[in-house]
Specification:
Elements lengths: L2 H17 L12 H8 L3 H13 L3 E4 L3 E4 L4 H7 L4 H7 L4 E12 L10 H4 L3 E11 L2 E11 L16 H8 L4 E10 L2 H6 L7 E11 L2 E11 L15
Helix pairs in contact: 1-3, 2-3
Length: about 240
């Protein structure tokens, strides 16, 4: 069989497994030796397929660690899923940490900004959190989050200094509906200072709301330094 055909077959098989979710981000792919045996081809053919997948951003090739399924850019994942920031940071080979800057329980209402929190908590109480996520000790994203105690009562006694709220919610509170709003903003003085950015620096802001069976769970605003991210989505046309 022509080597080009085999190369495309290997690349296509791996691509389908990644895009279908069968092979999740961070999964180590079979070694080149294993693929040579599986497809009965030369090592150079396998290496060419791996190089093509890496160039398209589907896999990451690391010395000693081998080839793994790549973590997509944060905002690409944010378009269609609920990303875990710790997983995103560690997927880039960086050390993750977070700082809980503020935490309190308060009544829901209409804030001074005009934001109506009734959809989230009704007349109930909210946990309000401010968190700075770090990558290799440097600011990665600033997060402000509200959690409805009516939906997640255990959030009132959870130590979010020990585990970031987003990761904790993903592990403990299933969601059935989510809404994302992504916008370009300039870093305000307060957020700019915490992200170590000059005031007015272009940032991307992800606003996320989640529900569980129609009940509001959480509302979060995450601000990322804009120079470090882009918006990428891969999709196919809808078929009738």
């Amino acid at each position: 069989m022509d080597t080009t055909v085999i190369h495309r077959r290997i690349e296509g098989d791996i691509e389908r497994r990644i895009l279908s979710g069968e092979w999740r981000p961070g999964r180590r792919l079979p070694t080149e030796s294993d693929l040579v045996t599986e497809y009965g081809c030369a090592r150079m053919t396998v290496s060419k397929a791996m190089a093509s997948l890496a160039a398209r951003g589907l896999v990451t090739r690391r010395r000693r660690a081998g080839t793994i399924v790549a973590h997509p850019p944060l905002h690409s994942a944010a378009l269609v899923s609920i990303p875990d920031i710790q997983t995103e940071v560690e997927g880039r080979g960086l050390a993750y940490a977070h700082r809980l800057l503020a935490a309190k329980v308060r009544e829901a209402g209409v804030r001074e900004t005009g934001v109506d929190e009734a959809w989230l908590a009704g007349d109930g109480k909210l946990v309000e959190l401010e968190t700075l996520h770090l990558a290799d000790g440097l600011p990665f994203v600033h997060e402000r989050r509200l959690i409805a105690l009516a939906a997640v009562p255990e959030a009132g006694t959870t130590d979010f200094a020990a585990q970031a709220a987003g990761s904790w919610l993903l592990a403990h509170t299933p969601w059935t509906e989510a809404e994302h709003r992504i916008s370009a903003v300039g870093a305000t003085g307060d957020i700019a200072q915490k992200l170590l950015l000059p005031p007015g620096t272009a940032c991307l802001r992800l606003e996320r709301r989640t529900w569980r069976d129609g009940q509001g769970v959480t509302w979060a605003w995450q601000t990322f330094p804009g120079a470090a991210y882009d918006l990428v989505a891969r999709f196919q046309p809808t078929r009738a």
